[in-house]
User: What shape does this take?
Amino acid sequence: MVAVQGGAQVRPSISTTLPDVEFVPSLKRLGFVNVSRFYSVLRGGGGGGSGSVRLRSLQPIKAMEDSTASVVNDSAAISCKSIRQMSKMEKSTNIMWHKSSVDKLDREQLLQQKGCVIWITGLSGSGKSTLACSLSRSLHSRGKLAYILDGDNCRHGLNRNLSFKAEDRAENIRRIGEVAKLFADAGVICIASLISPYRKDRDACRSLLPEGDFVEVFMDVPLEVCEARDPKGLYKLARAGKIKGFTGIDDPYEPPLNCEIVLRQKGKNSTSPTPCDLAEIVISYLDEKERFLHGKELIRWLHGLISGWVGVKFVSGNSSQVSDGANEEKSDHLSLEYSCMYFLETIHIPSTIVIIIVCLK
Ligand SMILES: Nc1ncnc2c1ncn2[C@@H]1O[C@H](COP(=O)(O)OS(=O)(=O)O)[C@@H](OP(=O)(O)O)[C@H]1O
Ligand SMILES: Nc1ncnc2c1ncn2[C@@H]1O[C@H](COP(=O)(O)OP(=O)(O)O)[C@@H](O)[C@H]1O
Assistant: This one.
């Protein structure tokens, strides 16, 4: 019930004093991970990319700077990131990054997926929105949470005050990039589909995310094909001079030089893959990436858990499937055979750990 005080309505509120929050070390938190799923991914559930997909080398995920920022009880302590951020702010001053005790990894574990941004770029009519929808549908049917940020749609709200001048396009892209970053941080697979004609604007969005979390997909469809499709009649208007600064007609489009995936269609008469086929290519890339990431997390989890509990030291071994190469610490490489993982899939985790320890001894 809403109380009335001095004629004004006062919303009911709850006031409480919180006990000190205990921060659980991340390795312990990983105990909640669905290990059987990890194993199924390790076994090679992901299909390799094929056809016109160009895979960038799979990079290890670098923790976001804010996620590595030390968690301290003293609220006056400012991390390096905060200081750098404060100095970079253009108009806001005296602001600090506030870190939550529930972080990206927690949310990803809850959702059983990796938050990332799939950035679809290309001319108007190249099939960006169609691919975004198809991808979203395929991910949804696999139990993955995805959300589309479509250029056209965002211009109905968030970006309604922006035109198609270069600086407004840049601002449009910057805002969508920032929102996409938030979605990725929420653990969601964010599909951004917008023309984003300028390389530097796309690269700026990429730089907002940790390496590997930004997947750029180029709809490499010739202008003549897009123009022939012209579902909204905009090319016709642009050719007639009724729309000025239309991308591909009298405004530039800079194709990506080194993006993760190129979906190419040759010409008007060539048969184009269906949107479903295209979505599968993107998903195969994500599967591949996920396998890598989860494998690495599993190794870390096992290593931390076992060496922490019983002080067992592992010898460096052959774990190329999960190693990230040169920068990986030797101690992260376990000589456990993957067959051990069968136990993880079928037996309760603590019993599995005991079995592994007995085998090693
Ligand atoms: N001048 C001009 N140039 C290009 N496109 C135009 C223009 N005017 C309106 N439209 C319609 O706006 C859609 C593109 O919006 P975006 O936000 O994706 O553009 S951008 O990234 O800021 O360049 C685009 O949608 P898509 O066809 O889905 O790409 C067009 O329908
Ligand atoms: N893979 C495809 N093959 C053939 N036609 C397609 C394909 N993808 C999209 N289209 C068609 O092309 C047109 C433009 O697609 P759309 O997704 O709206 O492009 P964009 O968002 O890049 O402007 C639509 O009529 C759509 O049905």
Remarks:
- Confidence is low (pLDDT under 50) at residues 1-7, 13-87, 307-347.
